[in-house]
Amino acid sequence: MEEDLNVRKKAELTLGGGIRLPEGFVFPYRVSVSTAGPGAGSASAVFSFGGHRVKKSISYDEGEFDLVEENGKLALKKDGTAFLDEVRIEPIVFHSPEQAFFNLDQRCRYRCAFCVSPKLDKDLDKGLTDEDMVMMTKKAIGEQKVVSVSLTSGVFGSVDRTVERFVSCVSKLRKEFPDMPIGVEPYVSKKEHVKALKDAGATEIKLNIQSPSKAIFKKVCPDLDQDNVIEMLIYSVEVFGKGKVTSNMIFGMGETDEEMEDMSEFLCSKGIIPTFRALRVNPSNRSALLSAIGEQPPADPDRVVRLAKMLKEKLAAHGLDTRSCRTMCIECGCCDIVPFRDL
Ligand code: SF4
Ligand code: SF4
Questions:
Q1: Residue ranges around ligand 1 (CB below 6 Å)
Q2: Full-model pTM
């Protein structure tokens, strides 16, 4: 019962606004400013409670939730009333707790309506070289727990060039860290890309199907080909193995629960682990989303939990488990309800 309540609260937190810090509160860890994911572009931090963790934007000036210090403990309030009795602040390695997660290039030639990364201020583009990332990871390993390295990127230039960049970075990381799980989230267009990433030393791959509905995909990702993503996913299972290939579906773009379920059944039957992400609308993506799919009802916590439970059943029925993954959003778990980890 308590556990169900915490899952519901996590869903509420992941969908809700930021956290206001008490005046003068000194943050115990370095604050993250990410270039990908729902909190991209804003200062954010990771909070944990009851075995769950969430990444939230933080500010001294505003927030839907208030961080308060009571009896030597940190708690969260919402609208002035208790929301969570005890929360802890967790250290972030890079972007994610216990993970060195790098965005190779936030720029992208494509125009996915929900995507914030290419619209961010150029100043946030950290322009890291492969050597920088190796060095930063090595330093982090010496200072804190690091379970894996993950890489994402927009497509700047060509798909071939972007995959080459991934390959170069993965090769250097693999050479330096022979046993480290390495996850990649590229856009690939041919089988050779998938093979090259595996040969370089990647252990997990995430290729995003983005929506369970082909019609919605066409509207929100007008430059991309969903059939090709599916073909690449199926091939990736041959190369990376069952349970090492994941694919994100965004919900809240006009799809039905039935479509989410049907696509999950299809992906799981092929050995692919679907991940679900509620659509987050913000000033950077609002107008592109309105043009693509019109006004949609905001995702609500009940649907988040309902879909996560459905996904857990589908995974279990096909012998899949998110605990086989060590990288990217499944391992991080800060923005979604992850089956087998949160519930
Ligand atoms: S391919 Fe689409 S989702 Fe990926 S970075 Fe580019 S615009 Fe964003
Ligand atoms: S769940 Fe994914 S997008 Fe969210 S903070 Fe973690 S790695 Fe980033």
A1: 108, 110, 112, 115, 117-118, 154-155, 187
A2: 0.95
**Given phi > 0 = left and psi -120 to 50 = alpha, else beta, which region is 305?**
alpha
Pocket test for ligand 1, best of 34, 35, 104, 108 (most atoms within 8 A of CB): 108
In-domain check, residue 182: no
Q: How far apart are CA 139 and CA 79, in angstroms?
A: 41
Domain that holds residue 48: 2-90
Per-residue pLDDT tens digits for 247-269: 999 999 999 999 999 999 999 99
- SS3 category, 65: strand
- Can you count the helices (H) and strands (E) in the chain? 10, 14
Q: Residue 73 domain-assigned?
A: yes
Q: What percent of the chain has pLDDT over 90?
A: 87
Residue type at 15 in one-letter notation: L
Under DSSP, the state recorded for 254 is S
